[in-house]
TrEMBL record:
It is an enzyme of class 6 (ligase). Substrate binds at residues 299-305. Pathway: Purine metabolism; AMP biosynthesis via de novo pathway; AMP from IMP: step 1/2. It comes from Micromonospora craterilacus. HAMAP family: Adenylosucc_synth. GO terms for cellular component: cytoplasm. GO terms for molecular function: adenylosuccinate synthase activity; GTP binding; magnesium ion binding. Mg(2+) binds at residues 13, 40. Belongs to the adenylosuccinate synthetase family. Its main location: cytoplasm. It catalyses: IMP + L-aspartate + GTP = N(6)-(1,2-dicarboxyethyl)-AMP + GDP + phosphate + 2 H(+). Transmembrane segments: none annotated. Binds 1 Mg(2+) ion per subunit. The gene is purA. This is Adenylosuccinate synthetase.
Amino acid sequence: MPAIVLIGAQWGDEGKGKVTDQLGERVDYVVRYSGGNNAGHTVITPDGQKYALHLMPSGALSPNAVIVIGNGVVVDPKVLLSEIDGLAERGVDVSRLRISGDAHLIMPHHRALDRVVERYLGSSRIGTTGRGIGPAYGDKVARMGIRVQDLLDPGILRKKLELALREKNQVLFKVYNRKAIDVDATIEEYLEYAERLRPYIAETRVMLWDALDRGDTVLLEGAQATMLDMDHGTYPFVTSSNPTAGGACVGAGIPPTAITKVIAVSKAYTTRVGSGPFPTELFDDNGQHLRKVGHEYGTTTGRERRCGWFDAVVARYSCRLNGVTDLVITKLDVLTGLPTVPLCVGYEINGKRVDDMPMTQTDFHHATPIYEEHDGWWEDITKARTEAELPDNARRYIARIEEQPRLP
Ligand code: IMP
Ligand code: MG
């Protein structure tokens, strides 16, 4: 089995890590291809300890798999090193890590700008994770980014940082009234990271092509999710990269023809962190139920996640956009105990029924979900491992999701 892409079908936190675990030992390479330490997934180490990872793919714990941080990722070296140390302390072999020299670095001015810009936006803020993700990608696109490979050449590193800070310090100081960032201190700090990261930096593309030629299994693990995609999500309330399946090719350097499977993960309901439209959002006791029972608090920022019902329009959009071959539904047990479980099967927008994502964001903001009401169930399903073990009502609910047009 060659390249498999694993993506989130909603706004993130769908439980992609669990699916990676299930693919387990059949995976030879696990690759992160976009985003940075804005992501967060809780993993259980081999000795049973719970541990939150942000930059490393959740597949970092798959035994024997080579862990790859692809060119499409933005790397905060301090965070990466603390994850390397944290995993090593827990007995995980991190010598399997490879970082693309083409990945971009998150620098101190990116973190500073992320925070001040959000403050400046006030009620129009995106609700970012404040990790410097947007500014780092912004510099990448503006061709003033600093890459992982620049860590290996102190002369280049200094030249690029001086150039970037010549502008950014003006912005920080004159526009936002913040302290300028010191070039020397930053260089010193980053050269220390460089020494520690050096053994992991590699030409990851060639390595992955060779792996695919041998018939190894490469898992391209998405962070964030479809609706947070820069191009296809709810812009501007998105992250600054392409977490969708197409982004996997770009962010890992793998050709589209190598991909044989696209697995999408969706919760049995919906959550979202940060600002932006969310048609099926709940503000009542049902929303509280989902948040409480589903432990819907961000892994990275601890923020309360916004909660709502399953949205088949979003699911359909994700499945078509990503060419999904397999859809995994997680956290069905969170719905246990609700008298009725509504399923959004379409929207009403300006008095018209709509089954696909509307063209404009304004229409999406005004979308009123059309719900199909399903009877709930009270039986404990946490131990159920097969469909047959589910109560009839739970089975019917899942069947109705499966029956939605254009889902795999
Ligand atoms: P940024 O990626 O920090 O710039 O944040 C942009 C938007 O994406 C915000 O609404 C964040 O809450 C959201 N976001 C970023 N990463 C994740 C994630 O891993 N899970 C859920 N939401 C995320
Ligand atoms: Mg998460």
